[in-house]
Amino acid sequence: MPALNPAETRCPPPAPAAHESLARARREARRMMREEGLLAPAWAFRIHPVRAIRGNDVELGGTRLHAPALASLFPCVTSVAAAACTLGPALEARVASLFASRQRVSGEHARVMAIALDELASERLFRLCDQLHARIARAAKREGLRAGLPEHPGDPGVALDVQAEVLALAGIEPGAITANSSGMLRPVKSLSFLTALGAGLAHRDSTPRCARCASRERCSLKK
User: Fold this and answer.
1) Residue 74 to residue 53: CA distance in whole angstroms
2) Do the domain assignments include residue 70?
3) Residue 119 belongs to a domain
4) Is 31 left (phi over 0), alpha (psi -120 to 50) or beta?
5) pTM greater than 0.90 (yes/no)
6) 109 strand-pairing partners
7) Does the residue 155 lie in any domain?
8) Does the first or last residue of the chain, that is N or C, have fewer Cβ atoms within 10 Å of its Cβ?
């Protein structure tokens, strides 16, 4: 068998028809979000003084979190903001119903619509998270503090098993977001994070979210 040219081993680009189908599905997904009222965003954050830093653990009030990303900033970090946000459960249920359906929706396969809706939801969630982090940064600035980047449970610098503690520290209503024993959040389109605050924190340009994500190489949303 002749050797393949490197160019021949690459997957061919999607056909124009596939691009158009996805574009139509995204337009319909936006309409669906709006007309069916699928978005019910909720968010909360609270700022807690750092009581102590012991090794890679940070103590906030009576809670001890394994968070090397924050502990490494000692002694510059004096407070930590705990935050959580969600798009609500209706969108998740709609995506699941589309995946289970064998019918067409506005001329598109239901599963194509499900993928488009799920991707749009992820984009909206990331936007909500960025807006929440901006609120925290503004609140910190009023107190003469700088805000670090958001550190999510499950990232290299924050243990995944602290999800429930972060939700409690953020002050989000218990019925809005829950975490199971594995650290997975419900509704699925939810995020929690911690942000270091301190007057002596070095200025850090906000690195694009995709550049910081460990799943960027296999993510369909990466920029």
Assistant:
1) 7
2) no
3) yes
4) alpha
5) no
6) 104
7) yes
8) N
